[in-house]
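FAQ

Q: What does a record look like?
A: Structure on top, sequence underneath. For example:
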């Protein structure tokens, strides 16, 4: 893990998103076998944050494709547009619970794009703000998730402590954290703390094919696989 911080903030897109792409209202995303799906985003540019599709999300969905349907029950934590959870469902996850501090119209419209059977039987949403540590919804606590998906959830240092606190209370077999380096010192502290609690491995970005993320946008992007010790 230390190697990724040796040179501070890497060159490349510091924000982790293409500005012009952030202003589009729809994005066509690729699936295996020449299939695709069109998902919505707000089109409000970078100020939208949770309702635009960031590079970390594109990297994570490409990695999910490489897992060959080994997904099970999924929690998309800090789901934003729902891109990662939606791909998990398309890739035959048993179920997906989408959670964020705001359940946006953008997220709901993207879930509706799915086949009715998939959206009604596999997809559920729960609104939850991590800062409310005393009132964690029971649906997050009363089950073991096969995979928790966390895409670009470290962008705001004020949420780091609540994030770690929540993760410690969740039961899971694997957590995939797609991460863009922006504030190395603060983010390194989060990953160091997680490494004390769990086993952390960095996924080699060259180990799986890219359908949606551009090779030139991989600078400073990482996926951590986090598993209970």
């Amino acid at each position: 893990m230390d190697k990724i911080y040796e040179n501070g903030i890497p060159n490349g897109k510091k924000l982790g998103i293409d500005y012009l792409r952030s202003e589009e209202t729809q994005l066509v995303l690729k699936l295996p076998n020449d299939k695709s799906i069109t998902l919505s985003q707000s089109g409000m540019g970078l100020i939208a944050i949770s309702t635009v599709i960031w590079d970390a999300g594109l990297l994570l969905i490409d990695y999910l494709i490489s897992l060959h349907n080994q997904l099970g029950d999924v929690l998309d934590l800090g789901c934003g547009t729902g891109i990662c959870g939606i791909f998990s469902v398309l890739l035959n996850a048993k179920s997906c619970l989408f959670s964020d501090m705001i359940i946006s119209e953008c997220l709901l419209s993207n879930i509706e794009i799915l086949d009715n059977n998939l959206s009604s039987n596999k997809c559920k949403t729960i609104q939850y703000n991590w800062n409310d540590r005393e009132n964690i919804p029971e649906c997050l606590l009363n089950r073991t998730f096969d995979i928790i998906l966390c895409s670009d959830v470290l962008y705001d240092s004020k949420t780091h402590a609540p994030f770690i606190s929540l993760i410690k209370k969740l039961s899971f077999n694997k957590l995939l954290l797609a991460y863009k380096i922006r504030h190395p010192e603060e983010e390194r502290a989060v990953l160091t703390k997680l490494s004390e609690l769990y086993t952390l491995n960095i996924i080699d970005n060259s180990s799986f094919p890219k359908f949606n993320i551009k090779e030139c946008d991989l600078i400073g992007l990482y996926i951590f696989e986090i598993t209970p010790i």
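Q: Is there anything notable about this one?
A: Residues 184-197 form the longest helix (14 residues).
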